[in-house]
Amino acid sequence: MYLALLVIFLQFSELYTQDKVFTFNTVEIKVEPSVKVRNGAPMSIICHADISKSADFQLKYNFTIFKDHKLVFMTVSDTGDAQYEVPVAKSSDTGDYQCTVKADKKTRSSDPVHVWVTGMTKPTLTADKRDVLEGEVVKLRCELPEEDPPLQFCFRKIKTNSTPRETCVPESYTNFSVLEVSVEEGDNILQFDCFGRRNVKLEWEDSAHSNKTLVTVREPFIKPTLTTVPSSNNVTEGDQIQFECSTVVVEMRDIEIILQKNKSILNSVQDKKLLRYSTVATLEDSGEYLCKVEQGGASKTTKLNVVVSELFPKPTLVASMTKLDKNKELILNCSINGFQTANFSIIRKNANGDIPLKNSQTLKMRVNVNDTGSYTCKAEVKGIVKESKPVRINVYAPVSKPTLSVAGGLPEVVLGKPLQLICHSVMGTPPKTFRFYKGDDVEKIVINDTYATFLDENIRLNDQRGYRCDARNNHSSGVKTSDILNVTVIVPVRDASLGSVPYGEVEDGSEIAFLCSVKEGSLPILFRFFKKTDNEVLLFEKIEHRDRAMWHKETMKRQDTGTYYCVASNRANVDVRSQPITISVILAAWKKGVVAALVLITIAGAGALALWWFLRKKKKAKGPSMEMSGSALAANLTSEKLARQPNDGDYYSGSGYIEDSENHMKSTDESKGPDLESAEVEYTEVEVSTLDPHRAPVQKGTETVYSEIRKANNGIFARSYLALKIVSYTGFLQYVIFLARNWIRKYNAPENLPLKGRLSCPVTARTLRRDFCSNP
Predict the structure, then answer these.
(1) Tens-digit pLDDT profile for residues 244-285
(2) Which segment of the chain is annotated as a signal peptide (predicted)?
(3) How many domains, in total, are found in the chain?
């Protein structure tokens, strides 16, 4: 039962909660009577919340009103409206107002509304003093107690029959301002007031003026009196004039009297009522004088104009001549118009001070150049000294004969470039007038002290006119003319070219000739020969009085291969460079032959060594040496030799041959031992002569004879020696052919030839016999 009641209660609570639904539609703020309210009038700020509810239930509304984002009002209401009352609106109430409403857990704010309270409250003005002296300071205070800063306070100083003087002071953090005002001379009765000002929406708004404050001003001293003795309009040069300035002072404390003329202080006194000043009057003393009395901040002045009459006029200096020659007589005379009794003196002006020449009215002197300058005279009457205007005297020495030269030094010019000439006259008083001539034509006139320059830009190659100049000054001697100057026109070098013999290639060790030439240019010409490298190398240079130069290089080397060029120049100082040429140093012909021979020797030697090694290997593979029966062969040979008859010079008797053969065979048989059995067999082909019985006198032929030769341990060195001898006698090629034939025939010979022992060489093989058949 209780459980059922709890469920029913919860259901009703849920239904009740679901029924309390609301939402803010709008929140508005409005101002009554309007957003623009007069200062001092009542004002109401009303906040209204428009809410929609799901049912009729009660809500609590929290209203908050802000001005310029600052809280000014807060309340709780059961209705959707709240009102903020301002009984007396002030300018400080001007601003942006906004309302925020909170109900339950929901909050809504209105849009801001600007309220402008027009007009400001009236300020109050107070002064710290009501009775002051001239020069003292009055402190004024203007206040707007009901207004909020920032504000601006304007103070007005009001004098009788004058426009008020206004001074404004801004105040950013206070609603009052203090200003100190100085009381000036002539401020007898003063009135002050003030008003406030503020800026609203970029517009200035002024308050009403405050109450007027009256300030009485008293003089601390009276205006000073300035007098002169004699009177200011009856003063003559030379008179003693005295100035007096006086005043009446209320209190003799920190008072000062000052006498001025043209802002220059002539005299002053302190804590006195009277000032005196005296001087001898001159024309320069005419003018306005000022007497000023000061005490504290107070100041009063009096002005007096003084006119000084002229006692006598300024003297006049007259010269007999102002321009004269050296050693001429000069007369200077000083005088005063209508006045004779005066003390005269003649003076020469100098930068370091005046130089008195004579205390007299007249001066005679014979002048020199150093006497050139300005002269004046002075006249003194009754202590008044006056000076005349200066007179300029110029004394001239005659000019010397001018010299004409070229600015560069030498009398020459490069074609196409300007020529600058200098005409110089050493002696003579400046200024001097110089004239330049080209031929008979005047080209230029220059006035200068010592020299003049002329620039001729019209230089032609075949212009034969000479140059001259003359100089003169104010001396009576007249013009001096220079000598005629002839100028050489230098033609720059043009179009340099370089060639060589031989051209392009030259053999190593041979000579070569380089020729550098130009198309045109004034002589002499400097020719320089270069080889182009990273750093340009000067090889040869020569000065020629013609348009070409040759350089012989006797021996060219491989390192001389490269690019060559020449540079030509003359006194025009313009370097003209030729086009480069390339020279290749090649190997000489005989060196090529040597190289070829060395290559062939190397190749042939390697081939012969390979052939020998191959045949030696083949021979070792055949086994032990074969015995050859030599008896039949020996008999045949013997009978053949005996049958031959001496026929010509090529024939040689064979008796010795037989004997040697027999003896050799005997010794060989007798000495045959273990070494002989193991010795190698060598076959040598020799050429022999045979006699043809059907023809006379002799027919040559060849017959292959194989002889067995025992090879000793040093056989290789013997063959090397033999090869060297053949090279020395018959040449390398004959030796190669011979060696090849010898080895080929030896290894292709019949293996059963009955030949044993060492055979002597035939008589016809003379050349080979020398090398091969001589006893070791």
Answers:
(1) 999 988 777 888 999 999 889 999 999 888 999 999 888 888
(2) 1-17
(3) 6
